[in-house]
Every structure is written in C-alpha cells, then in structure tokens.
Amino acid sequence: MVGQAARLLHQRGILARLGHPGAPPVGQAFQFGGIGLDLTTAPESPLHGVSTSQQELESALAARADEMGVDLRRSTELVGIAEGPDRVTARVLDGAGPAEIDAAYIVGCNGAHSRVRDLAGIGFPGITDSTVVSRSAEVTIPAATLVPERAELELPGVGALGLYRWNRTPRGAWSMLPRASGTLLVSALEWEHDGNGDDSDEGPATVPEVAAAIERVLGSRIPMSAPAGPGPHQLRRRRGRNTRIAETYRRGRILLAGDAAHVHNAVGAPGLNVGLQDAVCLAWRLAGAVRGTPRLLDGYERERRPAADRVAVHTQAQTLLLSPGAEVTALRALLSEWVREPVVVGRLATLLEGPDVRYPCDADAHRLTGWFVPDIDGVDHHLDDPRPVLFDLGGAPAERPHGVTVVELAVAAPPVGALLVRPDGYVAWAADESGPRDATALHHVAVALGSDA
Ligand SMILES: Cc1cc2nc3c(=O)[nH]c(=O)nc-3n(C[C@H](O)[C@H](O)[C@H](O)COP(=O)(O)OP(=O)(O)OC[C@H]3O[C@@H](n4cnc5c(N)ncnc54)[C@H](O)[C@@H]3O)c2cc1C
C-alpha cells in the first residue's frame, strides 16, 4: 500500500493490527514506470508505504468495523435497488433467500463491475487497452538466493535479478516481489501487437504458462514451481487494461467509492490509496447527512474525482513507459536523466503519495488548507476521531468552535500555529498566528463542516 492511505490507517490504529506499530516508513527508493527514483534526494513530500496483503488488510478493517457495531453480512448479494424520495431499498439474496434492506443511502463499494453502478444507470466511460496481457504467479525458485541488501535475487547461470520493481526489456516487462511467506510473486507484461503476448493460452493460468511468459520477456529460463502447502497461491492471467471513471459519483441516494467509481492500471499500486481516501471522505459526509446536513454530500465528488483523474493520468503514463518500442526507449532515456533532479523526484513522489491534488478552498486560504495533514510530531495519534480536531500549536484563537475536539500540542518549531483537521485527515483551516479574522474564518469552516451549527 503506497501513499497517504498508509498514514490514514496509522491514524486509526489499523497499521498496528497489521504488525506495524509505528508510523508507516518513508520509502528510500521507488519507481515510476520502472524508472528508479532515489527518494532520498527529494526536498520534501516523502512517499509512505507499507507491505501487507490485501486479505490481511481486509481482516483488520473487518475486525474494526465489527468492534464499532457494524452489521457485516457475508455471502449476501445485492440484486436490486428501489429508490424513493426519502429512502432507498436494497434487494438482496442471502442463504435464507430474498430480503430487503431499507436505508437512507446506498454506497456501491463493490468493485470494478459494480452492480450498484449499473442499477443506478451510471455510465463508466474510459478506455480499454486490449493489447496488453499480464500474467503472475506465486512461486518458489529453489536455485535462487535472496540478497536483501541489494534488493536482488542471485540465480546461477542467469545472474542478479532486480526485485520490487518493473524491469523493462525489448519484449515487455517483468517483476519479482518477495513475500513474507518466503515465496515470490513473479509477473510478466506483454504487448500482443508486437507479437510477444502468446494469446494461445486458454482456461485458468498455470505456473508453466507464467514461467514461459517470463522467459519470453527476460530472455532466460527461470526454473520455478508452485509453493508447497494448501495456498491459496496467486495465479492469474489478465488480458487488457481498463482506465475508467464513473460519469457521476452520485445519483440521488446512491453513491460510489473505490473501484466502483474508478479503475486504472495497477502499476505503482495506487488502488487502495485512492479508494480508501474516497471511503474516509465519504464517511464523515454521510454521517453528517444522516444527522440532518445532507449538503455535506455535495463536496464528495468535487474532492474525489480530481484525485481519480490524476491517478488515471499517472498510471497510463507509467504503463506506456513499460511498453516496447524505440520511441518509448527514447522517452525513458530523457526521463531517466530528469529524475536525477531532486525537484523532479519530489514532484513524482508527491504525485504518488497523494495524488497531488488540493481539495477546493478559498483563494486566500492558508497554504496547508486542502492538503493532507502534514507529518507533525504527535498529530497522527489524535486523528482517530469522528469529529474535526483543532490542534493548538501555540496559535489557535481563544474562542473555540463547538463540535470539534481540541488538542494542545507542544511541538518544537511548529510549522503552523493552529490546524483544523477533518476526520479524513485533510486540513480544513490553518493559521500561523491567530487574529480576529482567523477566529471568524475558523468559525465559518466549522459551520461548513457541520460542526458549529
Ligand atoms: C493484479 C492487481 C494487483 C493490485 N495490486 C495493488 C497493490 O499492490 N496496491 C494497491 O493499493 N492496489 C492494488 N490493486 C488494486 C486494489 O486491489 C483495488 O483498488 C481494491 O481492491 C479496490 O477495493 P474496492 O473495495 O473498491 O473493491 P474490491 O476490492 O473489488 O471489493 C468489492 C467487494 O464487493 C463485493 N461485491 C461485488 N458485487 C457485489 C454484489 N452485487 N453484492 C454484494 N457484494 C458484492 C465483492 O465480492 C468484493 O468483496 C491491484 C489490483 C490488481 C487487479
């Protein structure tokens, strides 16, 4: 998981459940379309990241939801929606047969093929690149030795193989990712229009098929086999790639979030970052709406669609950079020169961390307003709060709005005097030192958030 979502989960204590008790680490190196980025040269905006499996993350989120009294129903399929002026009814099928669930709103967080989106009649425009085939398998490579300090795999007869990144060759791209269990996730990307993507494979993917794809791309045979034990072990073939964004995130009482609202290439791992941030942005707005402030829902798409647009841009750019062709090689050569400039690394790190989109705010708003809360010592510990949090770092107005949690923090050389942080971690208001004008602005912002009515 890459980017701000890692900090978001830290703020909620969910990373600790995943065995990461401290703040998420700042990466030293990353990649953009397989071009290495030395993040230690970036002047600011380091990139956060945490290694976990999606299954473990989902279990941790489910455990927290359960503790908070959420009624989580497994094996319950949504099959229909009936919308009235004040309520909406979900028609579901579970083990006991058909049932109806009455609600104020329905949020479709049901993935790329969202039934909710279809039932609401919301289009999903975008592009499908059907020339690309990706294959991946979780395997063991018994002859290989892991060299963690160089992030390489040493294989007799083949040499050193770079880990954790896409490696481009004239025939496609390959990657190898060590797993905590000691296995490796190996992946190959091939483009059919260059005659490299063998499309003769039918039926479920197999380890020999993935090994053959790696051999075509890499030019060397890597002896690999399925791991011992019951699994499940990842094994997949995927033809085509989609970049699509829902034509609207809301129709009446029906809303969309995560992959139901946007899909893009997985390169750079932006999916959970953008999807989890949709969820937290919508959550406090929905809570306000059901308590009587429905206007709060208006800001959801305004804030989140530009983030999805930005992810669509950088994932398509990264996919192009991995594809074969002399022009792409030339573009990579230029970009490889530019990423030696700290300012370029910083821009790319900010793009991947965020994305680099400021939420709409007044033209004269403080420079931190509209951005994810900066990494100030002690702030993250106070952000598992359903209400906005006013941090007084020595410059908050004496008059505090109602409905916000106030935290006084003593920080050496604070970068700002006071901050109002929304439940989704974004700064709603900030001031360097407070005068009467700031107190009025703070009050207005708190009212806009539904807190100081
Ligand atoms: C190969 C691959 C690798 C990836 N790697 C990464 C990575 O390293 N990092 C990263 O951040 N992201 C990664 N992603 C993207 C990430 O997996 C998705 O962005 C993320 O899972 C989206 O979450 P979601 O909850 O929106 O949808 P999903 O995870 O698709 O969940 C949707 C849920 O809705 C349920 N559902 C569907 N229809 C119905 C219905 N009618 N009734 C009831 N339930 C229904 C489904 O069963 C499912 O549980 C990767 C994706 C792929 C394909």
Automatic annotation (TrEMBL):
Assigned keywords, A-Z: FAD, Flavoprotein
Cofactor: FAD
Coiled coil ranges: none
GO molecular function term, any single one: oxidoreductase activity, acting on paired donors, with incorporation or reduction of molecular oxygen, NAD(P)H as one donor, and incorporation of one atom of oxygen
Domain FAD-binding: from-to ranges: 7-312
Official protein name in the record: 2-polyprenyl-6-methoxyphenol hydroxylase-like FAD-dependent oxidoreductase
Gene3D superfamilies reported in the protein's UniProt record: 3.30.70.2450, 3.40.30.120, FAD/NAD(P)-binding domain
Entry superkingdom: Bacteria
Record InterPro entries: FAD-bd (IPR002938), FAD/NAD-bd_sf (IPR036188), RIFMO-like (IPR050641)
